Amino acid sequence: MKKIPLPPARPERMLHALRKAAVLCICMLGAVGCATPGNSDQKLATALDQDLKDYLTSRSSAEHISTLSLTVSFGGGAPDINVSTGTSQYGGGVAVTPANVFQTGSNTKAFTAVAILQLEAAGLLTIEDPVGKWLPQYPQYANVTIKQLLNMTSGIPSYTSNAAQQERMATEPMSEITPENLIDCVLSEPVQTPGAAFDYSNTNYILAQLIVDKVSPSHSYQTDINNIISKNNLKDTFYEPYFYPSSVTSRLVSGYYVNDDDRNDPLYALYGHDTSGYSLGWAQAAGGMISTPEDLTRWVRDLYEGDVLPPKQLQELESLVSTKTGQPISSTSQSDSTGFGLGVFQITDPNVGLFWGYQGSTIGYRATYEYFPSNGMIICIFTNSQTSNAQNQIIAQLFPKVYATLKSAGRIHD
């Protein structure tokens, strides 16, 4: 199985969407869990645990990671398998279990899209509304539609590629920066023709956040997101705009920024730092959530198979544009392999077929899932660094190994 082309983990371009798609001696402690496991489930869990341990042994130094956490969900009533290995800090800490939480990065975007689509289902807006209807304070974006924000065809530049914002992230990591501050970073930059091309921009989702604030009866994006979390029984998923309470951070593993793709990038000043205590004000609706692989897996299944959205809005969430052309496509294919919906990617890979997925990244974490609609299987892996594109091998190496283990165990059929 070759590398699956999910987005590269680079926070200053925060998943710039598929355009680029000596071992440390630490104690590799592991934890394995699956609900009411049979012998075959326990044997598979042990094999998956070994996959994580092998990867951590070979890649800990190169990726500056101390832990990996995995959930595999089969659907149809079969028990999930939850496996974790390693420690909470690079070079030390305590053993990580499946209950430890990680920052999930741009996996937050699906929650933001759902918040908008639920407002549409309630008759309070439509995704064809122009931004100017709800946010007249931004005349530059007046003719961009909400749908174009959510499917990354707005033409609005991303604040995470703005040098001034990168400098602020590096020098003021505890800043409670507002959504308006983030948008201000790019107000003077030109807007490309809306709908003409796919261009991954975190600014889109900050504007969507402000629309939720304006339109929702709660007038609070945070309230609406936490209502979504509660209604979907996500007990280990959390959203705060800046800092999390100790009840959450006590379970948060350390995360490290080790991206040396561009040593002139202001963020390089954070190289090697534990970023787990920094403000997530720079991410918010574009990537500020915290969760576990098990909870994200539960959310993914509910999103695609459950009643999170009415049928019309789910169809809109899954409506794709090609990341090559920016134009609508009914589905991805071998010739046009990557599409973006409203906060979600669809990929067709020659080795595993069609799946929905995302690799979320912050300045210390990576969180990746793949959902296969053909059989209902979900694979979700989290780790605790944000590294260079070349060193980011979770998708290229670990996902194929996990997939092969599942196939060898008879859980995947051609």
What does this structure look like?
The structure is a single chain. This protein is α+β, with helices and mostly antiparallel strands and 414 residues long. It is 30% helix and 18% strand. Strands 1, 2, 3, 4, 9, 10, 11, 12, 13, 14 and 15 form an eleven-stranded antiparallel beta sheet that branches. A three-stranded antiparallel beta sheet has the order 5-8-6. It has a two-stranded parallel ribbon with strand order 7-16. Strand 3 (81-89) and strand 4 (92-95) form a beta hairpin. The protein is globular. Residues 1-30 have low confidence and may be disordered.
Termini distance? 13 Å
Structural class: alpha+beta
Given the C-alpha coordinates, what overall shape results? globular
Q: Beta-strand level of the residues, as a percent range?
A: 15-25%
Radius of gyration: 20 Å
**Total number of helical segments?**
12
Low-confidence stretches: 1-30
Indicate the percent of residues in helices: 25-40%
User: Major beta sheet, specifics?
Assistant: 11 strands, antiparallel
Order of H and E elements: EHEEEEHHHHHHHEHEEHHEEEEEEEEH
Question: How many beta strands in the DSSP annotation?
Answer: 16
| Overall pLDDT confidence | 92
